Known about the structure:
43 strands, 4-stranded antiparallel β-sheet, 12-stranded mixed β-sheet, mainly beta
Amino acid sequence: AMAGWSRREVRHAAAAGPGERHMLSDSLHSSTSSSPPLMLFPSQGSAASAAPHHHQRISAPEDCGMSERRGLAMHQEGTVRENSRTNRNCDPCDRYDTMDYMGNPLADSSDQGGCNVTGTRCLGLRTNRPSYLLLTHMFILICAFTSVTASELQYATIRYSQEMGNVVKFVIPMQWRRTVEFTTIQKGEVVDVVGTAGVGSGPVVFNPGYGPTHRIQMFVLDVGMDYVFGEAYFTLASYPSLNNNGAPWVATLQGCCLPCSYSHFNLTANVDLLNAPSSSAFKSLPTVYVQGGVTSIINLPANTPGGVNSPFWRLGQGLEVSQLFIDRNVFFFDGPDYLQGRLTANFSVSNPALQGSCQDSFSVIAQTLSVPGFMVPLLFIVKTVPQADWIKRPTILSPTVSSLNGYVGYDVFFTISATSSNPGIMQQVRVFQLPEGGQTLNSRTAVQSASVDVHWMPSEKQTGIHWICYEAVDGLGLHSEQKCISVVVVQQQAVLSFANLIANQSVSFYMREHKTVSIIGQSSIPYDLLDIAVEGTIEYGQVVTVNTPSVQTKVKATDNVNVAQLTADLSWRPDINMGGYNKTICFRLSARGDLSRPAVPSVSLCIRVVVPKCKYMAQSGDTLQKIGQIFNADWLTIWGLNAQLDNSTVSVGQEVNIGRSYKVVLGDTLLSIANLFSVTVASLRQLNFDVSQAKSAYTLEPDTLICLFPNTCP
């Protein structure tokens, strides 16, 4: 529906709000989708596509400047221009999208000459010479504002998903060789696609298997030194039934041209919504590099958006490969390898010159199958690398595992790193076709090294197996081997718990000793982000520090851990008047994360914090004389309370008795106990925190232990 838009209009549509896009698309009689990629094709319900079999869509021609770059004069007189078209394929600017439901151009009765390809594209108005000349010059002006790109197709596949009822969304990932037409193309642009190679050229068209054929426009996702990668979207393919009377609907992607052989391609996808509401998607890289002269195994992993693994595949055959020749002595599956999605490439048995290729590059078409009636294509390139370059290729350092665990609603995070022995700064680590919602962050390149972080938070609809493939490219342009890792996603309720302490456990702090106790909370899902908070209040001097991990220190999917952990530290140095302290401190452990996942119940832990009475833990530099000064007591009395001491020397960490314990009997008060042992009520309060607030005449609880220094002097 964007055919004929200027590049500025496309960018304006991409930046416009829904209402603005509606007005823009109305002005051009196109569909009114709410996001730029979904505006690339007209809907089946639009006026432009009402006829199911014979449909004529008139749109402004593309960039005629491309013809000038191919050495064709655009300012010739009508007769000269018309005669030139009889000796070559039609220039894309001379063709229009008048095709039947099988993708065949329909003849235009008003066109009385010129093109040797059925149908022309100059608005179908060729009734007289003056009009033709006028329109020729008008087309030069119009085409100058339309982004048309031409190149060789390196990679393509088709995937689909059922939106509702019989309505299907198609996504067509494509990679084209970056030629002069792609020089100024940037990520985020929307471009028309015209394939060209050698002397061949032609539009790239798509037909869903029912209804009209449509020209391809591509939303550019990635631009490399020698490639442009993007996706085309066809959002409203409507079928009259779930399948075609028991057979699948056959969607086709057709056009020109394959690399080297300059032949046309014809990729087919079988659509059977009754058996497969969503198709698989191949995840292998557009170009797979293997060592020349030997046998190599190429992984061709595929899975559905919902995580159904699709390892079953076969090589394309018949009309599926069109003019492409695939040598079955070179490319084949060995025994049960097709069950694991593995393709054998044996370059030791065949002369590459016989492949109709570029000697070291081979286009291959594979078809993945999952259930009866379902099949999608993969066109990719296998490129052989000489031994001398093979030993110098970059090496993937991590991940070192072949499979990772993923959980619905939790960030699957890992780092891909690579190194190269060749000098210079590495170009990139390329991660290809992440699952929906995935992204790469913190891409880093340095001399002989490169890395990138992968983040993906699976949704409930993505449980199952998902493949992620990647490679590294160094400063010399050498590519590593393709690596693929599977992420197995499950939906699991996290279980929170405390790891090192149990409920109501007592934790002792000695007077004048600085001590830290760790409270470790954990989740059964290792990617969880946790919080620990204190419930209620804490005493003066007590400090709780929660070591909340940052994004940089969070658990990676590649880490060898089974649980997520978070530590809170309780630190305290009780004073000499805290003996007998005995209180409960509670902590609450909760999970914080994506709100889309089910809430994880928080848990609490309460512990008893106790300061023993009549006990002191010797610190560095302590002697009995110094301890006596701390407690305002005679050191000889303290020595007498510690039979284990031979002299006044004490060791660090040694427990020292600093008083005697008296068990309260019925009727005892602080005053009565002070009188009994000839001490003051103030000294009893200082050594017994638990009764420090009691009045002197208050009757104490029987069996309570009271610490005191008895007056041993007459």
